[in-house]
């Protein structure tokens, strides 16, 4: 039997797959794309750095530098090569490939930056490993698809590029060597193609984009977008894979002496027995982990009237308790079950715990080392939110700072609110910005941002969306540099609410600050209040959980002692009776002796009547003998009586002791009962554990144990005080020269973290000011370059069901504690590489264990769920699915969407947070009922037929005629072909037709709606809207697509649960009606 694969071999298999990741090259508005024939025919005239007229025509600034992508070809060629080697798919596999494989668009061989003169930075040229890997695939050189071979080939290419650079001509004597059209062709054909041993059908020879060299990052920049990354291990940076370098670094670090508890668990082959959280036997474990002593004292300041659901709070308690020393935990959240709410409370927990440490310092200066960096006690609370879905991480990072994320009762909270607004605001175009002189005579550009809408206004810099270099530079610019107002002017001092914009430094100057000492006192007061309240709950929980002592043994002991006492009293009484009888006999003998002595014969009688004397003497001797015997017996009886009395006293003493102990216990139990009653009256509306309650009880699942409005409010106020303490700390920290020096370098650090000698220390400083930073997995390697194993406190993975397992490796390795949140029954990861190729590479490296680690079959969520000892099993379409900690209470959709999705994907286990009447189906605008619109027709473009478009247009006219807002509608389809066809069909409508029902509609509004609200199911995960129009496809003779879409619940589950209020389905009921879920 072959051994289990090692973590290193798993990472090696995943890294080999990364060679084939396509780099998507987007065409920007100003891009110039040139074909080979155009470049050969027109030559240098098509290169803007060599043609001033072209620069003027394209409005290219004189100081612009250029990004040149070389050797453009269709991404679909990669799948074509794989089919040549492994054969063509059929059936469901073919349909799945068509819909899930990222096959659209253009990719390229390499990228190089060219300066304004035309000099290429060939030493920094980055290459895509895809054409190199395709060359090996086409020739079936699988044994060379390894990182070392690739490194060697890149070193060879780097040497050739050095020689090539020397062959370039200079435009002027002693000037820089420039890149001409012939050089581009030579670079492509003589260097890159031989290096890859691959020459595809070229789409374009090159694409040229430009940016203003030397300018600061701004929203207008087209500079480095953080496309994959450079490596210290490879001679040339890799253009296409964001994860290749991290997989290499992590694999090299996985030796026993290195910390990596979370990643080792993630890559573990061991099967972890699960405690089934949907079984009655799990109730005791749920009650134990829901104990108020395990509930974090901090809470996000949401509406205190709304408790967590039972499993939300269980998941939070499990995370904060079980991950204290590191590890990984997974939570499974079906749509609308409060995954974001859960993450918010974890954020609140970390902020409060760091504030607890911070409150232990006497003065702010003590929180820094000599270099102005945080002391270790304040580290370990860093929080990174990561996902493969850029929208997911940006949404949560942008929502957390908004006032709409907190309840009205806590709107007084203000943590750098003006800076948060500035980060959130949209920039004004350059023509609307102003320039003026400040009072000090210095010129400054100001009036930089658009007024912020009320629902987008912020309470604090609790989080920031970073990731790509562009995002990091934008954040640094907004947070540390930009100034919307001229300094020290009335406009700055009297900022309107919708233009409350200040950089960190201007906030420091303009804000009315609370001292650190005062904020510390306020926090400690709230902490004391919270602890006192929670201690009452702990006492109540412990008293209710404690079994009252069984008094039966004591009562039995008392009864036995009383029986012994009765017997002993009888023995004592008998001894007394016997002793009394002896005393009577002895008195009688003594009397008899006196009588004998009185009748004693005289001396004369003794001489004359010797018989009488002898008889007297015999009688007296007998009396004396009897008297002696009775006296001896009396002594014995007296001893027995004394012993009986002593024993009786001992038993009586024991009885008294037992009676006292028994009474004490009775009094104690009565006191505890009174205390329980008093505490229950103190918290009458708190849900308390009942082990006998059914695990699927609606009331049990809807409300977390040990919560009510008062408790929630106090925990939220503790978080508010914790944020105030952080703000007071920051205010006084800015007076520290060493800390100020660190902040002065923060912009440069964020632009190039890899250049820092100790990046984790600088990140810790930023996390102290901004507790939560988000990034896509694609940017983790570059953003956290140089950050080692377990050097970040927390990693919160969102939408983990959409991410391929290798994407999270670098992030998990860098984090001490990892919480994975997602749902494997929603959108699956997009295929970026041919499944047949992925299967082969996994089998080649992992043998019979290939499917267990095949990233084409798994998501981050599924791998993490395997390591979780909490969870349950679902039967989904006759297959058992094992998941992690389940969130069951749904709060988004009304009927019929809720019940349809619940039956289809979750075994009916979801529970709605509202009662049946509150979620019953209601017609749209009170008139238009949810319905299936049956259309028939022959497909003309894969799954599309015109009757789908006809049905959609008729439905849209009906909805618009009833004043339904266009923005409230999503149009969703499982199929790419249907999406494109519908977009084309809608684009054919003129503005007059749109306006026949809603005259105020604008062309821009329609265009934005078409771009954002129409798409395949994959593009809508994590979003919601009032109404969804689900457009199906296929016909009775071409059912393959329908069979694929309905073969798993994922697509239809997501489509249904995007709709909060209404659903319309357009499709052929004959084709679709027989599939699970759709027959309803």
From TrEMBL:
At the top level, the lineage of the source is Bacteria
Which Pfam families does this UniProt record tie to the protein? AAA_12 (PF13087)
Residue stretches in coiled coil: 558-633
Q: Where is the DNA2/NAM7 helicase-like C-terminal domain?
A: 889-1069
GO MF annotation: an example? hydrolase activity
Keyword GTP-binding in record: no
- In Swiss-Prot or TrEMBL terms, this protein is called Helicase
> Where does this protein come from, organism-wise?
Pantoea wallisii
């Amino acid at each position: 039997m072959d051994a289990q694969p090692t973590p290193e071999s798993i990472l090696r298999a995943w890294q080999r797959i990364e060679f084939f990741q396509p780099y998507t090259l987007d065409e920007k508005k100003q891009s110039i794309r040139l074909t080979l024939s155009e470049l050969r025919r027109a030559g240098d005239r098509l290169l803007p750095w060599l043609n001033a007229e072209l620069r003027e025509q394209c409005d290219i600034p004189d100081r612009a530098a250029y990004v040149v992508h070389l050797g453009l070809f269709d991404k679909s060629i990669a799948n074509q090569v794989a089919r040549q080697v492994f054969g063509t798919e059929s059936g469901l596999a073919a349909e799945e490939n068509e819909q899930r494989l990222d096959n659209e668009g253009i990719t390229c061989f390499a990228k190089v930056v060219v300066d304004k003169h035309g000099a290429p930075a060939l030493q920094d040229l980055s290459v895509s490993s895809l054409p190199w890997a395709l060359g090996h695939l086409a020739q079936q050189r699988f044994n060379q698809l390894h990182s070392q071979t690739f490194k060697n080939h890149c070193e060879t290419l780097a040497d050739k590029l050095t020689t090539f650079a020397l062959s370039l001509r200079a435009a002027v004597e002693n000037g820089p060597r420039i890149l001409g059209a012939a050089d581009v062709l030579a670079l492509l054909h003589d260097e890159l193609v031989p290096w890859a041993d691959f020459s595809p059908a070229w789409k374009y020879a090159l694409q040229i984009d430009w940016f203003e060299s030397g300018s600061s990052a701004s929203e207008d920049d087209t500079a480095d977008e953080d496309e994959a990354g450079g490596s210290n291990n490879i001679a040339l940076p890799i253009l296409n894979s964001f994860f290749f370098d991290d997989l290499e670094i992590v694999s090299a670090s996985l030796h026993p002496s290195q910390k990596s508890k979370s990643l080792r668990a993630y890559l573990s082959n061991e099967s972890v027995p699960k405690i089934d959280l949907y079984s009655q036997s799990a109730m005791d474990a749920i009650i134990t982990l829901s104990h108020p002593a395990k509930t974090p004292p901090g809470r996000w300041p949401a509406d205190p009237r709304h408790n967590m659901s039972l499993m939300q709070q269980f998941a939070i308690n499990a995370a904060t308790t079980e991950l204290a020393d590191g590890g990984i935990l997974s939570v499974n959240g079906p749509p609308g079950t409060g995954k974001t709410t859960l993450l918010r409370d974890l954020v609140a927990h970390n902020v409060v715990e760091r504030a607890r440490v911070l409150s232990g310092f006497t003065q702010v200066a003590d929180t820094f080392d000599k270099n102005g960096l945080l002391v270790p006690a304040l580290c370990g609370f860093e929080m990174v939110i990561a996902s493969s879905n850029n929208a997911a991480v940006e949404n949560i990072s942008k929502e957390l700072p908004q006032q709409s994320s907190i309840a009205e009762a806590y709107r007084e909270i203000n943590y750098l609110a003006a800076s948060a607004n500035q980060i959130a605001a949209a920039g004004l175009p350059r023509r609307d910005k102003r320039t003026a002189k400040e009072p000090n005579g210095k010129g400054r550009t100001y009036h930089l941002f658009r007024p912020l809408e009320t629902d987008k206004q912020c309470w604090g810099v609790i989080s920031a969306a970073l990731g790509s270099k562009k995002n990091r530079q934008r954040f640094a610019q907004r947070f540390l540099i930009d100034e919307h107002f001229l300094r020290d002017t009335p406009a700055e001092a009297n900022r309107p609410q919708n233009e409350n914009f200040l950089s960190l430094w201007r906030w420091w100057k303009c804000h009315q600050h609370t001292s650190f000492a005062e904020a510390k006192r306020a926090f400690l007061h709230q902490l004391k209040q919270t602890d006192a309240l929670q201690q009452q709950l702990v006492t109540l929980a412990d008293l209710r959980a404690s079994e009252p002592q069984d008094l039966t043994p004591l009562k039995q002991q008392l009864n036995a002692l009383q029986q012994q006492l009765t017997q002993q009293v009888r023995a004592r009484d008998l001894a007394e009776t016997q002793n009394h009888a002896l005393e009577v006999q002895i008195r009688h003998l003594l009397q008899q002796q006196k009588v004998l002595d009185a009748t004693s014969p005289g001396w004369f009688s003794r001489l004359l009547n010797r018989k009488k004397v002898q008889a007297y003497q015999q009688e007296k001797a007998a009396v004396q003998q009897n008297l002696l015997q009775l006296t001896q017996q009396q002594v014995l009886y007296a001893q027995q009586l004394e012993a009986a009395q002593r024993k009786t006293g001992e038993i009586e003493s024991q009885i008294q002791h037992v009676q006292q102990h028994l009474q004490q216990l009775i009094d104690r139990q009565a006191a505890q009962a009174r205390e329980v009653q008093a505490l229950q009256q103190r918290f009458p509306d708190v849900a308390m554990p009942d082990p006998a309650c059914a695990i699927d009880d609606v009331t049990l699942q809807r409300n977390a144990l040990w919560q009510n409005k008062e408790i929630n409010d106090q925990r939220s106020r503790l978080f508010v005080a914790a944020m105030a303490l952080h703000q007071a700390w920051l205010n006084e920290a800015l007076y520290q020269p060493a800390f100020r020096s660190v902040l002065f370098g923060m912009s440069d650090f964020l632009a190039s973290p890899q250049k820092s000698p100790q990046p984790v220390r600088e990140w810790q400083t930023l996390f102290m000011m901004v507790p939560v930073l988000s990034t896509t997995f694609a940017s983790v390697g570059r953003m956290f370059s140089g950050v080692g194993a377990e050097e970040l406190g927390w990693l919160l993975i969102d939408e983990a069901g959409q991410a391929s397992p290798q994407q999270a490796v670098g992030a998990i390795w860098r984090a001490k504690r990892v919480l994975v949140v997602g749902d494997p029954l929603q959108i699956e990861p997009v295929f970026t590489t041919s499944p047949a190729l992925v299967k082969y590479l996994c089998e080649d490296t992992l043998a019979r264990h290939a499917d267990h680690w095949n990233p084409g079959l798994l998501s981050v969520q599924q791998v993490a769920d395997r390591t979780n000892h909490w969870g349950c099993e679902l039967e989904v379409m006759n297959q058992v699915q094992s998941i992690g900690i389940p969130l069951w209470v749904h709060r988004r959709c009304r009927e019929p969407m809720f019940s349809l999705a619940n039956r289809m994907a979750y075994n009916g286990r979801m529970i709605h947070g509202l009662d049946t009447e509150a979620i019953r189906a209601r017609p749209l605008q009170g008139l238009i009922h949810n319905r299936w619109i049956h259309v028939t027709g022959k497909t003309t473009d894969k799954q599309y037929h015109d009757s789908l478009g006809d049905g959609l247009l008729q439905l849209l006219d009906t909805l618009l005629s009833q004043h339904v807002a266009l923005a409230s509608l999503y149009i969703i389809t499982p199929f790419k072909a249907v999406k494109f066809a519908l977009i084309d069909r809608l684009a054919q409508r003129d503005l007059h037709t749109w306006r026949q029902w809603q005259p105020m509609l604008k062309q821009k509004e329609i265009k934005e709606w078409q771009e954002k609200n129409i798409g395949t199911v994959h593009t809508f995960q994590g979003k919601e809207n009032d109404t969804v129009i689900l457009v199906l496809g296929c016909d009775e003779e071409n059912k393959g697509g329908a069979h694929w879409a309905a073969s798993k619940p994922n697509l239809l589950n997501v489509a249904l649960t995007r709709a909060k209020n209404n659903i319309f389905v357009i499709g052929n009921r004959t084709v679709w009606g027989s599939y699970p879920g759709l027959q309803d």
